[in-house]
Amino acid sequence: MARLDNKTLLELMSQEFGGDVKSIDEAFGLLAVETAKEKIIEVLEFLKTHKDLQFIYLTDITAVHYPSQSLSIAVVYHLHSLKHNVRIRVKVFLDGGKPEIPSATVLWNGANWMERETYDFFGVIFTGHPDLRRILNVDDMEVFPMRKEYPLEDPNRVDKKDFFFGR
Amino acid sequence: MSEFKPVVKPNHPIFEDNDPQDELVTLNLGPTHPATHGVFQNVLQVDGERIVSGVSTIGYIHRAFEKIAEHRPYYQITPLTDRLNYCSSPINNMGWHMTVEKLLGIEIPKRVQYMRVIIMELARIADHIICNGILGVDTGAFSGFLYVMQEREFIYEIFEEICGARLTTNIGRIGGFERDFNEVAFQKIKEFIKRYPPVLAEFEDLFNRNRIFIERTAGVASVSPETALSYSWSGPILRATGVDYDVRANEPYSSYEEFDFDIPVGENGDVYDRYMVRNEEMRQSLRIIAQALEKIEKEPKGIFHADVPAFYLPPKEQVYNNMEALIYHFKIVMGEIDTPKTEVYHAVEGGNGELGFYLISDGGRSPYRLHFRRPSFINYQMYAPMSSGMLLSDAIINMSSLNVIAGELDA
């Protein structure tokens, strides 16, 4: 089989999932698709086990916080097909008040710590995760620090505010 | 924003279960222990000398780099990347510069790309020297470590010649280097590729066929390729299991596709194979450096950065005497220059594996979100599960051969 291109990849996925998977971006040749949290494990399993795709390598799981959106937490998966040497990015947008998503540990053992890290920093609950505890921060921390509402520095400090620099 | 109450999970049961009547002993290996190189804690349940189960606690030197990065302009994030894998900081620096250049669409001159290759390969050798040297120390052979450590000092002298720093280098800038390599630097690089092979051969003479070393390492912590891939391993430890995944070959950056080098792979995925893979990678790195030096000779002299005045700071004397330079200097420092609103993932082959930068830009002066895919963090998660059933002394050697760097683990 020739080198897998993004068009074929997207066609294969829409044949399987129809409108549940939609392409959102193709910046720098890396196809990004969006799906729903109910479908995510099916999508990941399809990508991993399909004989022409074989995205067997889970590169990374992380999250992004967009406070202005109604679905404010995006969980981002990066997969890599070592057979075709192609990457794909899968995104799922979740409700920031109650971010829950099924755990990918059923497919990859390596998802364990990546999901713990995402939980630790964004509060995403990965249902079915065997050991969802904080990993880098202290256990009794009460906030999820990578969310945008938690400022880096003392918010009372004004000398670094943008308006002093005309921004 | 709806109110969201986090769930504070109780500690893992292994921390509470320390019944004196029990046959098993709970043993804290770390956080500071001479046999763990860095701040790692593993709470192990041991039956005599055999480990029954274990839990890793990490995060002792977590410094919130991803949060800090959201508040810093792009060029000020380079010093943060230094402190990820501090045994090979230049690779992290270059990886970050290349990520931003990919985002901004900056074309880098060939000469600069080759200079970067030299720096990255020197850093890889320095990283592997540490790992294999310390592996020797942990198996009880101290002298090999001293032989090769001298050469790492020499690599650091080269870095010092180029950028003034040795460990946390902050080397290069977005768009190229801060200055050209001087003559002394080129001489030292040439001297290094001459003087290092015999030292490496001497080091290998001490270990490769050494019966004690083989008995301590061969067959220890053997990992199958399937398990390694399922745990998302990358780098020399993945290649030791027989998977030929190397970012330099799979997704060449900085003109790696023009270089002729081999990717060594192992068979058993044990500690001995990891050691052998790293040694061979050092040889391949020397080959790459030699080729890069040849290629640099053919390029026009004196080019050390791309011609991108909007992103590359002008020399200071021009800032005082030249209007355009002053404007660009002001715009760069004050973050007035627009960046594309997009997402980019860029990976480089770090000392320990695939070091990825996932950067989301909202058009501003600092990233909207920056995530580091840190190989040490992902490689290390298999450590506690794979230690079960292992002898304590083997688990120590296993940890040295994984080459987990605390800075990269905790970010």
Rg of chain B, Cα atoms, Å: 23 Å
CATH architecture of the largest domain in chain B: Orthogonal Bundle
Rounded to an integer in angstroms, the radius of gyration calculated over CA atoms of chain A is: 18 Å
How many H/I helical runs of chain B?
A: 17
The spatial strand order of the largest sheet of chain B comes to 1-2-3
What multimeric state do the chains show?
heterodimer
User: Largest interface, by Cβ-Cβ below 8 angstroms: which chains and how many residues each?
Assistant: A-B, 55 and 51 residues
Q: What gap, in angstroms, lies between the N and C termini of chain A?
A: 52 Å
Shape of chain A: globular
Topology order of chain A in helix (H) and strand (E) letters? HEEHEEEEHE
> Given this structure, which CATH class of the largest domain in chain B is correct?
Mainly Alpha
> At the third CATH level, what is the topology name of the largest domain in chain B?
Cytochrome-c3 Hydrogenase, chain B
- What structural class should be given to the helix and strand makeup of chain A? alpha/beta
CATH topology label of chain A: Beta Polymerase, domain 2
Q: In this structure, how is the largest beta sheet of chain A organized?
A: 5 strands, mixed
Discrete helix count of chain A: 3
> End-to-end distance of chain B, in Å?
28 Å
Question: From the coordinates shown, what is the CATH architecture of chain A?
Answer: 2-Layer Sandwich
Label the structural class of chain B.
mainly alpha
